[in-house]
Design goal:
Pfam families: TetR_N (PF00440). The chain has nine helices and no strands. It has about 200 residues and is mainly α. Helices cover about 80% and strands about 0% of the residues.
Length: about 200
């Protein structure tokens, strides 16, 4: 019976996390009080701290999880390369899918990053830089760019891959149209910038 209880606790925790994320995404992290957050996730204010040490820690966990998922998209690109398949369409498809599965986390990562402590921002910044560098190694392994130019290019490329799916869905483009447009935009930018 213990495994069932553990599974139930895990499911309850995930459900509460998802409710908190939805509230943050809807209202904005800074506009949500601890009391409102507790009521929204179905806990008393006092027991909220047992589940989530602080609002900032919860936000940090949600954004960190997104960067872990973004790292996983790079693994899909590596597998495509190992199988002799084109890497860029694979990465674009993986980002399209991730944006469909986690739109609220993308919104939080862009909008509410500034609400985190300096230490949390630095840790997430390092995760993002690692993701961006990995992305560049996959897409443009032969580039001659270096230093800040290369870092800026990685940042812009990652931003395109992370933001375009939501923008294109808002324009009611089909998945096929969206993926094709993303591939053309990203490929064109890569050829002109890193070629």
């Amino acid at each position: 019976m213990a495994p069932v209880n553990a599974a139930l606790r895990c499911a309850n925790f995930e459900e509460r996390r998802d409710r908190a994320m939805a509230l943050f995404a809807e209202k904005g992290f800074g506009q949500v009080s601890m009391r409102e957050l507790a009521a929204h996730v179905g806990l008393t204010a006092g027991s909220l701290y047992h589940h989530f040490p602080s609002k900032q820690d919860l936000l940090y966990d949600l954004i960190e999880e997104l960067y872990e998922e973004l790292q996983a998209t790079l693994e899909q690109g590596r597998r495509a390369r190992a199988q002799g398949k084109p890497v860029l369409p694979c990465l674009i498809g993986a980002h399209w899918q991730l944006q469909a599965e986690r739109p609220m986390q993308f919104r939080l990562a862009e909008r509410d990053f500034c609400c985190l402590s300096a230490e949390q921002q630095a840790r997430l910044g390092a995760l993002r830089e690692r993701y961006e560098a990995g992305l560049l190694r996959l897409i443009a392994p032969q580039t001659r760019r270096a230093g800040e130019t290369l870092a800026a290019t990685g940042h812009v490329l990652a931003t395109l891959l992370n933001q375009l799916p939501g923008m294109l869905r808002a324009r009611a483009l089909s998945e096929a149209e969206g993926l094709s447009l993303m591939e053309n935009l990203v490929q064109g930018g890569i050829e002109r910038t890193l070629g």
